[in-house]
Structures are given as structure tokens and as C-alpha cells.
């Protein structure tokens, strides 16, 4: 351990009397926005429920998190025990305002170390476990709200993935109809808000509500940039489990295109424009109106929907041209053999399998959340045939 790591461990254990009597902390393994995570071994084996491996992850939730937020995370984790693709809560320790959640330790690799090297079979295994986890938590009416690679611990060697981090999760209010309540009964013209995006130089510089004196719309925006669903970006007040499916779709797009991060916006307006670039202005206007916004932008380049096949093929090809990134036997060549640069899928075995993967992607990344498939139905698609029992 470096001196600073040693100091951090010392400050952790010294603020938490009794901790070291239960767990021996080995090293720090992760750090998120709301916590630090440590690898530890229980001192007394009988501390752990039967059948659990002996190493654990101690998630030290920062004291700056509100007690309500901490309670919410622990309660949901407890509700979600019993599925192999969701990390169960083994124990909770508290000393004054310090809270530590005890989870099984999962061996995994950093996403950045494998996302360009997964062959299609690995991508399938990754998405299968992710969707299994989502199917399970959604069956319990829980939205994760922060689906992204660092919250899905994947081991490319064993091909096992586990969903972690329920810090932003919440219970879903079941939608009543296939109409978004934020547009119930349609809009009268004085209800619709105008969202304009101005083109200034290379990037859209601002989005604003035109001539609108009403207070700004507010909605839950919790999540991570690049993974937010359109309804989150458009501040819809009826966000459902489908926001997790959109994020899972972004993960699949990342794996297929071998681009990470795929979306790289710094704010919601830029994020809307990134999505508009793919789906085209017509579909985005429809989507915005569905959530009560009239959407306009004067960016000349943005016009029509583009094909995801071509987008993926071009991203991979650009990466290949950039130099030494792919070796001869890299999985990228597998993709390049399956799809040509116009996005036409070849009629070969690998071509057909890629077509199945892209079908999954197209059913995840659907602008309208009511038309987006849920995890259960996604798992029924032919891409996952070989994994189903
Ligand atoms: P935060 O809410 O701060 O994002 P997370 O629960 O996502 O906290 O944990 C942060 C990081 O710690 C994860 O991205 C992962 O690298 C590591 N981590 C968390 N839980 C475990 C676990 N059970 N096993 C192994 N590593 C973990
Ligand atoms: Mg996290």
C-alpha cells in the first residue's frame, strides 16, 4: 500500500471502532461518487451466512449522503437478495454516522480493459447477465437509475456479471396506460413548451425554453451522463423501469461499436443532440412532443435517422484506421467481416448473429419508453437462444 492509501485505511478503521474485530481490510478496490469500497476478510468465519465466499467488499457510504438515501439503498439491496446477477447485502455495520454495507466480493475487470476485446459471444454473455439482473429487479418494481459499466461488475474470464450500486434506485410507479401521463389527454397549445437548440460554432451552445415565463420543468435526473434515456433528458415526470433498458442499450452500443464512452456530452442539451444525430430530427420532435416539449434546432447537419449498423461499422473501422489498436485476430475483424461500411450485414453465420445483436440494440434504444421492450421480452429474442434453458 502507498502511504496515502495506508493513511486512508487508518482513518477509516480508527473512526470505526470494532470494525477490525470483525473484518480485516486488505485494500481499497473502488471509489464511486458516494462511497469507497474495500476488499476485506471476515475475522471470524461464522460472521457470514453459509455458502458465501470468504472475501467481502465493504462499501463505506460517505457521511455526506443523507440518512434517507443510505436507508433507501440498504432497504432495496435487502429486497433484492437471492439472484445470482444482483449483489446481495450480507450485513450492515454502523458507528455513529458511519455506515458500511457488507457485500460478497466479486472478481471483475475494469470495463476499459476489455470492452474492445470482447468477441460477439462475450458481448452476448455480458448482455445476458445484465438483462437477467434487470429482469429480476424490475420484477420487484425497482428502477436502478444508474445502469452503466462501473455498476455492472463483469469478469470476462468466467463470463459472469453482477449488478451493484443501488444508491440511486427507486420504486417504480406503474404506468396506467400507454400514454405518458405527462402528456395525458394531449396538450393544448399553451401547455407545450418550446425547446430551442441554437447552433453556435461547432457545438450546440444552449437550449432554452422560448418565451416561457413558467418555472422550469423539474424531474428526477439521477443517473450518469451518456446513459440517460430521452424521457429523462426531456424531464418527463413519469420515468419508469424502461430508463434502465435504454442505458443497457447504450452499453450494448458501446460494446458493438467498441467506443467508450459512446456518448460524451457535458449537459442534457448536448445529450439530446447526440441522440438526435442518430434518430434524426423528425423522430426526436415526436419524442419531445410526447413529453410536452416542442423541440427545434437550427443545426444544419442534423437531418435524417441513420442506420445503427452503419454507425457501428464506421466506428469500428475508424478505430482500426487509428493505428495499432487491433491485432490480426482481434474481435473487431469479426465485426468487419459481418457488416460492410454501408452497414449492410453479410449473409454469413457471423453476419446473422450480428444482425440478432443489432435487433436487441434496436429494441433497447427506442425513443418511446412504451415501445421499448422490457428485459423479460429482450431475453426472448433469438440473440440469446443459446443461453436460455
Ligand atoms: P458508488 O455508489 O460510490 O458508485 P459502487 O457500489 O458503484 O459505489 O462501488 C464503487 C466501485 O467499487 C464499483 O464500481 C466497483 O469497482 C467496486 N465494487 C463495488 N462493489 C463491489 C463488490 N461487491 N465486489 C467488488 N468490487 C466492488
Ligand atoms: Mg457506482
Automatic annotation (TrEMBL):
Key words, A-Z: ATP-binding, Kinase, Nucleotide-binding, Serine/threonine-protein kinase, Transferase
Annotated protein name in UniProt: non-specific serine/threonine protein kinase
Domain Protein kinase: from-to ranges: 23-384
Residues annotated as binding ATP: 59
GO molecular function: ATP binding; protein serine/threonine kinase activity
Organism expressing this protein natively: Pichia membranifaciens
EC annotation from Swiss-Prot or TrEMBL: 2.7.11.1
Any one annotated GO CC term: nucleus
GO BP annotation list: filamentous growth; mitotic DNA damage checkpoint signaling
From-to range in the entire protein, with total length: 115 to 503 of 511
Amino acid at each position: 500500500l502507498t502511504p496515502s492509501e495506508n493513511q486512508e485505511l487508518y482513518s477509516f478503521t480508527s473512526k470505526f471502532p470494532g470494525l477490525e474485530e470483525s473484518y480485516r481490510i486488505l485494500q481499497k478496490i473502488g471509489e464511486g461518487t458516494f462511497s469507497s469500497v474495500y476488499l476485506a476478510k471476515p475475522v471470524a468465519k461464522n460472521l457470514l451466512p453459509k455458502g458465501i465466499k470468504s472475501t467481502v467488499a465493504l462499501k463505506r457510504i460517505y457521511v455526506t449522503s443523507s440518512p434517507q438515501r443510505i436507508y433507501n439503498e440498504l432497504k432495496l439491496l435487502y429486497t433484492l437478495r437471492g439472484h445470482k446477477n444482483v449483489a446481495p447485502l450480507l450485513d450492515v455495520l454502523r458507528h455513529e454516522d458511519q455506515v458500511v454495507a457488507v457485500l460478497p466480493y466479486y472478481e471483475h475487470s475494469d470495463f476499459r480493459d476489455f470492452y474492445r476485446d470482447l468477441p460477439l459471444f462475450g458481448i452476448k454473455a455480458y448482455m445476458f447477465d445484465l438483462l437477467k439482473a434487470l429482469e429480476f429487479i424490475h420484477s420487484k418494481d425497482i428502477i436502478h437509475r444508474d445502469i452503466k459499466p462501473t455498476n455492472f461488475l463483469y469478469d470476462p474470464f468466467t463470463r459472469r456479471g453482477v449488478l451493484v450500486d443501488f444508491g440511486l434506485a427507486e420504486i417504480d410507479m406503474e404506468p396506467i396506460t400507454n400514454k405518458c401521463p405527462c402528456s395525458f389527454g394531449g396538450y393544448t397549445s399553451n401547455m407545450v413548451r418550446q425547446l430551442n437548440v441554437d447552433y453556435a460554432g461547432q457545438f450546440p451552445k444552449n437550449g432554452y425554453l422560448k418565451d416561457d415565463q413558467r418555472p422550469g420543468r423539474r424531474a428526477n435526473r439521477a443517473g450518469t451522463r451518456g446513459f440517460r434515456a430521452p424521457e429523462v433528458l426531456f424531464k418527463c415526470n413519469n420515468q419508469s423501469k424502461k430508463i434502465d433498458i435504454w442505458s443497457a442499450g447504450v452499453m450494448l452500443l458501446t460494446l458493438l461499436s467498441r467506443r467508450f464512452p459512446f456518448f460524451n456530452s457535458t449537459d442534457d442539451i448536448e445529450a439530446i443532440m447526440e441522440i438526435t444525430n442518430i434518430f434524426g430530427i423528425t423522430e426526436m420532435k415526436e419524442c419531445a412532443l410526447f413529453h410536452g416539449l416542442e423541440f427545434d434546432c437550427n443545426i444544419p447537419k442534423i437531418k435524417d435517422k441513420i442506420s445503427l449498423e452503419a454507425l457501428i461499422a464506421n466506428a469500428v473501422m475508424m478505430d482500426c484506421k487509428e493505428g495499432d489498436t487491433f491485432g490480426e485476430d482481434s474481435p473487431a475483424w469479426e465485426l468487419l467481416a459481418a457488416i460492410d461500411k454501408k452497414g449492410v450485414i453479410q449473409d454469413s453465420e457471423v453476419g446473422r448473429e450480428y444482425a440478432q445483436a443489432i435487433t436487441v440494440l434496436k429494441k433497447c434504444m427506442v425513443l418511446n419508453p412504451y415501445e421499448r421492450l422490457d428485459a423479460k421480452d429482450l431475453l426472448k429474442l433469438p440473440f440469446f437462444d443459446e443461453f436460455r434453458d
